[in-house]
Amino acid sequence: MNWQLLGLTFITVFLSEIGDKSQLATIALSGSSSAPRWVFWGTASALIMASFLGVFLGERLTEFLPLNTLKFIAAGGFLGLGIRSLWPKKS
Q1: Long-range contacts of 53-59 (CB under 8 A, 24+ apart)
Q2: 77-81, long-range: CB within 8 Å, 24+ apart, which pairs?
Q3: Helices (H), 1-91
Q4: The pTM is what?
Q5: d(CA 39, CA 43)
Q6: Contact 53, 45 (CB under 8 A)
Q7: How many helices (H) and strands (E) does the chain have?
Q8: pLDDT in tens, 59-89
Q9: Which residues have CB under 8 Å from 25's CB, separation 6+?
Q10: Sign of the C-alpha dihedral, residues 30, 34, 36, 41?
């Protein structure tokens, strides 16, 4: 196992997730809950499961699609989301 890669990935994801909506929801729920430890464990397990599913499905997709095609699809998806977020909402 490449421990340097594992540590770098962990630090990068940890820093990018600090201001995430799930972090704010966790703070709000733990402040109003009578069992903040359960809120922490539920949030932590949900983040781990979402990350696991992302890695698992990404690995499976690379078995069927070439890596460059998968990167192109992901870039197109992010570009589409970015452009859509710039459109004004219809009333």
Answers
A1: none
A2: none
A3: 3-16, 21-32, 36-64, 67-86
A4: 0.55
A5: 6
A6: no
A7: 4, 0
A8: 888 888 888 898 899 899 999 989 988 988 7
A9: 43
A10: negative
